[in-house]
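Tokens for chain A. Residues wanted.
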């Protein structure tokens, strides 16, 4: 059984490796949040997985995402990455 439309067994296995086993978890964290967690876990993931999760949450095929929707997702992903970099820098400097 697929978690969401667009996600096959390989994607499900990647998600299970980080504890994501239900569509509700993806909805709660958001596609970008889940993708970022996969990156942080050292998983090799392509942007197609991000597109698949985002579109799947809307019950759409991943190829139906527009360029502006993909750009918005990329901006959100970069914000997650920047937040992570700032958190690491603060921890390295002793700030909390």
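Reply:
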């Amino acid at each position: 059984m697929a978690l969401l439309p667009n996600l096959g067994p390989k994607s499900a296995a990647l998600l299970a490796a980080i504890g994501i086993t239900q569509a509700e978890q993806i909805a709660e964290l958001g596609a970008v949040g889940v993708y970022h967690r996969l990156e942080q876990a050292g998983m090799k993931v392509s942007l197609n997985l991000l597109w698949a999760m985002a579109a799947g949450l809307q019950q759409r095929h991943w190829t139906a995402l527009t360029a502006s929707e993909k750009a918005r997702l990329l901006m959100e992903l970069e914000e997650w990455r920047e937040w992570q970099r700032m958190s690491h820098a603060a921890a390295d400097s002793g700030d909390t």
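The chain has a mean pLDDT of 92. The helical segments are 9-17, 23-40, 47-57, 67-93.
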